[in-house]
Every structure is written in structure tokens, then in C-alpha cells.
Amino acid sequence: MLEILQREWVYLWYYFELQFRQIAPYYALGIVLGSAVSVFAKSKIHGVFASLNEKKLPRALGVILASALGIASPLCMYGTIPLAASFSRVGIKDDWLAAFMMSSILLNPQLIIYSAALGVAALTVRIISCFFCGIAAGLFIRAFYKDRPFFKFDSFAEPHNRDTDPNISIRLLKNIGRNIKATALWFFIGLALSALFTRYVPAGFIDALFGSDNGLGVFLAATIGVPLYACGGATIPLLQEWLWSGMSMGSATAFMLTGPATKITNLGAVKIVLGVKRFVLYILFVMAFALLSGLAVDIIVRSS
To answer: pTM for this one?
Structure first.
């Protein structure tokens, strides 16, 4: 019995260490660059968004720019909501706020670097799908809530800036430390789950569930994104292993959309500013967009 346990430990450690060597450089680079964006570019990005209201842009163009700036913003959802509340107070309309907040939930500079470990195709699909999801959210609010407020920001104060140390180097190091503290545990949990999956899940299981010829796989991927997603860094090892094991790009797309959008902490924050009815609309919108995007990606891949 002891020999069996020792052998299994050797196998698990081998898979864990192998994937760690493959993904750790992306994780480390994402930490550093994500913190650099937060410290040196965050105010500029948010300032550009706040200034859009003064430029008299066409509303559709504003939605597009808002979605792009949401991806560039390094804040998590609990940081984005107070910021969006401050934008609302200076006159930014709800459709632009929806685009900014939706894409900010789905993606940020740090997660972009993490996702590079999945390969160019998956990274490209992730950026494009998140960008268009933000646009779709803005256009949805524009179409159905044109003359009605969608968000409730009454209880939110001005956002708190934690990057205030007068020494720039110390400011960056403190941000990196907070970043590591928030993500490292989930990163190693993701590696451990990936090692367990590699060792114990039968070959062909993922292809059968999420393969490119199985439209149901997109729905399943979108659905499991709800309970499984905890942190972007944790899901990258799993996604990498699933893609190697036969998961279609469309199924991966659906997972990458519903996962962060329905992350428990994000849902709690979103519900505060939406209320029950609009919160349900948010969930339905995310699921529908993820399914359609995943199916579209699989069709494009098969036809190329």
C-alpha cells in the first residue's frame, strides 16, 4: 500500500512540476505587468474613460471604447463598481458603464498575460469574445433601458486608491505583494487540480464532453464555468490541460466567458448594483452570449 501511494505521489508531482514550469513564467509576468498597469497607468485609463462624456461621441462608438477601456482597467469587480459609481455621478451613461463593467469583469491586463499560456488562438479568442461581450452589454442597455436607469450606485462612496506610497518602487512592490497574496493560492490549487485530472481522468473523456463535434459541449462548458471558476490564475492550468485533451475552442470560449462573469465574488458585487430582476437578466445575458460565442467559434474553426 505504501509503495502504491509513493508511486502515485511521484506521478502527481511530475505532472504538477511539469505544468508549473510551463505556466509559472506567464503567471509571474502577469503579476508584474498587472501591477505595473495598476500603479502607473490606472489613473490614465480611468481618466480617458471619464473624459469620453466631454467628447460628444456617437453612443455606439462610446460603447466600443468603453469596452476596450474596461479590458485595460486592472481593477477587480469590487474596485470597478465604486469607480463606475463615480463615473455615473459625472454623467457617464448606463450603456457605456455596462460595456466598461462587463469587459472589466471578464478580462484585465494580468489575465491576458496568464492566458498567453493557452496559445495564440485561445488568447485571441478570449480577448475578442470579452471585447464583444462588453459591447453587446452596452448595446443591450442602450436598446432596452434607454430612458430608465439600470444601475443603483446610491450606496457607493468614491473608490479608494491603495497605491499611494510616495516612493514609486515601494508602491509597485506593495502592489505586487497584494497581487501575489490574492492569487497565489488559487494558482497552486489550479496546478494541483490539473495534475489530478491528468493522472486520473481517462483519455478521451474531455473530447467526448467538449469536443468540436459536440454542440452540447459548449453548453456544458458554459454551465460548469459557474461553479468551477474561482480565479483566473487557477483556471489556466485546467484550461490548458482540457484543450490538450480535446476540448474545442468554442467550449473553452464559453467557459472563459461564464467563469469570470459568474464568479461568486463578482456575482455578489453585481447583485448590489442591479437588484433581483436585473441580476437575473445579467445571468441570462451572460449565458446566452457565452453559448452563441462558443458555437460561433466552433463553426469558424471547423470551416477554416
So the answer is: 0.90
